Structure formats: structure tokens, C-alpha cells
Amino acid sequence: MKMKSALMGAACAFALAPFAAQAERGADGHVNVIYWQAPSILNPFLSGGTKDVESSSLILEPLARYDEKGNLVPYLAQEIPTLANGGVSEDLTTITWKLQEGLLWSDGSPVTSADAVFTWQYCTHPEGGCAQLSKYEGVSTVEAVDDLTIKVTFGAPQPNPYGPLVGAQSPILQKAQFENCLGTKASECTEQNFNPIGTGPFKVVEFKTNDVISLEANPNYRDPAKPAFATMTFKGGGDAEAAGRAVLETGEFDYAWNLQLAPSVIAGMEAAGKGKTVVGFGTLVERIEMNMTNPSPDLAEGERSTAAHPHPILSDMRVRKALSMAIDREILVEVGYGAAGRPTCTIVPAPEVYASKDTSCFTQDIEGAKALLEEAGWTVGADGIREKDGMKLKLLYQTSTNAVRQDFQALIKQWWSEIGVETELKNIAGSVFFGSDPGSPDTFPKFYADVEMYANNFDGTDPQSYLAGYTCDKAPSPANQWQGENINRFCDPAYDALVAELGRTGDIAKRGELAVKMAEMLSTETHTIVPLVDRGRVSAHSNTLGGVVLNTWDSELWNAADWFRVK
Q: How many Cβ atoms sit within 10 Å of the Cβ of residue 491?
């Protein structure tokens, strides 16, 4: 059976190699980490922002996650369930996990399968707004067979059962701490969301939202020799350049995340000799998102950017395609990333089996874009701006505050002006733009703009959950506290049908064909998402920080327990 053979080879357990002999937990003192996007919450179920997911991963852990090569490795689980070892049922409708024996939460209480069951109930509560709901796509039940055994049952055969409770976006919450935070109460549980009890190498001492997290070694971490660092300061805020200098030039910090800077700037910093950069390509794609709904402030607050009001300009696919055609992606790569970037027309650039080979967007076509707008009825007015039915072709283009992104905005605004589009630029502090406050008008899921730009990716090596995030029911709205991955409010029953088909397809080649088709529907067919750059993730660490392994498939801090001080 192709479905069986594909699944048997899809996952296996890998031991994490030690990086250095450690005398005892905490022996290497203190470590400083800086993320220029400050975490706003330490609960990844209430925020899809990378800085929130990754900071949370120091504390909260899943059953398994992915290593730097994209292999599944067990964390809280004893091993990775497969068909071969009996952990996945013959009919592909169940997966059964075994927790390691003796696991403790940082407060000293035992970790049990009841915590995993509760986590599923927490994220799928009908009155809640879970940012990671797609992780539970197709799940019927999660059961506690006994204290250490967790059985996940799917409504139909599931050839890729490694979504629920796997990866940094889907960790396990402690039932005792969160049991009064279900549904609409989830966002009100400030103490729980800011100070979660976890199983990871560190525990929270103090969390100052949008600023700094003070952590200390988890005294109940399962490896008595880890982490090597007794304490950690996780500083948030500022900008990428300041973060890079703090590691590569001044040595004030040990690790800096996501140095989204011009290649020449990074090279100048590295010349100081205090640290080095690390680069890895995965699935991180810088893109422009097109709002399919009307964000006009003239609408009532509960109706802006909702499906009830289609976008008056961008609902026309020809306009969206023209905007994409006017962009020179090769120049964006050169200006923004150098060797750490490459043009892309797809939001799923890897692994290869799932990646579209379409390169049609690589060539800028200003004249073609003009002709397309003419065809759509947008004619150039006396001021050079196109208009139609008394409406100007004017767009609000927002993104987070970041030097590279502001360079991109300036370039794209110029290219769009050449085809008769007036563009207003807006940049928002990353901690706000990627934040979780449902009351803020400036978060990326609320999308109170016409177009917005940011980068996104998926953890693991299979894009099923990621692509499932664009089904009609995943649109953020007031009803779900503005949570959900489908920020465009894209809705196509044909797409939803492909998501369902992918969920029951086991043959890897066929899964690849479906994923490519879905990604192309979102990008080069409908231009709802306009991919720009396949970004290699660039971070930096000091010369005295050992054990760093850049991972583009999971949290970048996935192996912080293995970090140590180079003597």
C-alpha cells in the first residue's frame, strides 16, 4: 500500500546529540537573548506571531518537534508513533502517543495524558479563538487511555497525523493551570498567559509584556544536566540592526534573532569579530497579503475587514495580478537579503515535493500590468492616478517597522506608481503588528489596510495544516476574537475541497501535487497572496555561545537546553 509505505517512512525517532559535557544544571551562569519583536504573550494558542511562539517554546513543549533537518524527534513522547511500531493504526484513523515516564511540570506536579486532552479541548472550544486551530484539522477526539497514553482519533484516514500536539505551535498546556480559561475566558487569564507552567528547560520569573522576560532553569527539567544556563534574559523590542550590533559588535547579548538587514550591514557587523551569523533556508516567505474585504473606517467596527463587505478594488483579480506583475523580485532580493534570499512565486518553497516550480513572477512586467488595469476599467486620470466609477486606485500598504521592510515599501510604492496606483505607506511596531490584543486596530490578523506585508512559514515538513489555514472558516473576525490564519478572508469552496482531499491522501507524490495546486491557487492563480522572497533565516550568536543549531522547521530556540558557554 502506498499510503502505508509513505507513512512508515515519514517519521522516525532521532536522538539529539549532546554538544558538550555539562557538569551540572546552571553551571554556565547567564545567557542573554534579544528578539527585536517583543513578545506580547507566552501562550502560542492566543497568538500566531513568531516572537510569541518562539519565546513560549522555552517554557511549553509538544510531544514532538522537528530538528534542523526536518526530522521528527520526540520531546515529551517516548518515541514517534508510526505504522511500523504500531503507534498509527492500519486504517490511518488513530495515532497513539506514549509520554515519557516521570515527566514533571516546573511546579513539580506530574505531566499526564489528561493535560494533552485538555489542550485539545482548550484550542477547539467553540467559543474560543485559537490561533492554532488548524493543528486539529480533522480530529474527532483526543483520549487519555491511561496516565501516559494519548490516543488521537481522526474523522477520516489521516496520512499525516503529526499535527496535534506536535511542533512549537502546538505544545501541551497544564490542565490545572488553564482549566478555568476555556472559551471566551481564554484571553482574560492574564496570569496563565504571561506565566505558564511548562516542561521546557526554563521557567518564567517575570514577564514584562512587550519588553523583557526573566527566566531561570526549570528545576524539574527531565535532563538533570540541562540547561547549562541558570538564568536567561529574553529582551524584546528595538530593531534588527540594534539587535545585530548587540551580538556582533558590542557582545552585550549572546543571541539575536532574525537579522532582517541589508547584506552589507551584516558583513560590517561581523567584522568586529565578536560573533557570527547563521543562515538556513526553509519555508519562510516574505509576501504581500491582499485584503479581500473592505477595511474602510467608514464601516462599523464589527464589520470592517469582514466577509460581509468585499473589497471595492482588490476583489478584482486583475488588479491583484497587475500589482504583482509590477514588482521586481530580483531587486528586492539584492537590496534586502543577498545570499540569504531568493525570488519566489509560491508560499510553499520547500520541501521540494511540495514546492511549485512556477517562476512566472520573476520577470517584472510594467507594461503588462498597465494593460491589465486598463482591461479592468481603471483609466489614468489627470494626476496620473487611475480611477474607475469615481474611485481613485489608492491603497494603504502596511507592515511592521523594520529597515528592510521599509526599503521594500519604498521600492514597491515606486513600481506601483508607474502603473498608476497611489500608495499610502504605514509601518507599525512589530510587537503591536504581530501582537495578540483583540482591541488593537493595528494587528496583522485584523488587517485594517488594503495590503500588508510580512513573512510567514510553517513548522515541520508537511504543509497540510498551513494550507488548511486558508479555508473559509479560518477567517479572523469579531466572533473569534480576531484569531485565525486566513487573514485575507479568502473563501473558495474548491480550495476547501482540496484541503479535505489532502487530508485523506497518503501517497506522497499525490500529496505534493495537491499542495502545489493549493499554493498556486492562493498565489499565481488568484494573486490573493503575492510571494516576494524565499527568505533564509539569518540570526547571530556570540563566539562564546556554543550548541546553537539554526532550525527553520520549528522554533529557532528548539534546542536552547543544549546551549552552553564556550570556555
A: 17
Strand partners, 72: 66
Burial of 380 (0-12, 13-18, 19+ CB in 10 A): middle
Structural domains present in the chain? 282-536 (3.10.105.10)
Block mean pLDDT (10 aa), the chain, length 567: 40 39 83 96 92 97 91 95 92 96 98 98 93 93 98 92 94 98 95 98 97 98 97 96 97 95 91 93 95 95 89 98 98 91 96 92 98 98 96 98 95 98 97 88 95 90 92 91 91 96 83 96 98 94 96 93 96
Give the whole-angstrom CA distance, residue 411 versus residue 425. 11
Distance CA 475, CA 305 (A): 10
H or E, element range at 533: strand 529-542
Q: E strands of 124-201, at which residues?
A: 139-146, 149-154
Other Cβ atoms within 10 Å of 86 Cβ, number: 10
Query: Strand 394-400 and strand 451-456: pairing?
Result: parallel
Which of 351, 413, 327 lies closest to 69, judged by CA? 351
Beta-strand relationship, 341-343 and 394-400: unpaired
d(CA 565, CA 233) in angstroms, rounded, equals 15
Q: State which H helix or E strand residue 193 sits in.
A: helix 190-194
> What is the rounded radius of gyration, in angstroms, for the C-alpha atoms of the chain?
23
User: Is the Cα torsion angle 52, 55, 60, 61 positive or negative in sign?
Assistant: positive
Are the C-beta atoms of residues 544 and 30 closer than 8 Å to each other? no
Which burial class, exposed, middle or buried, applies to 540 when counting CB atoms under 10 A from its CB (0-12, 13-18, 19+)?
A: buried
Nearest one of 257, 283, 234 to 59, comparing CA atoms: 234
Amino acid at position 60, single letter:
L
CA-to-CA distance for 151 and 143, rounded, in angstroms?
5
Strands (E), 451-494: 451-456
C-alpha cell at 512: 505534493
Nearest by Cα to 93 from 30, 7, 207, 167:
7
Instruction: Tell which residue, 9, 164, 39, has the closest CA to residue 95.
Output: 164
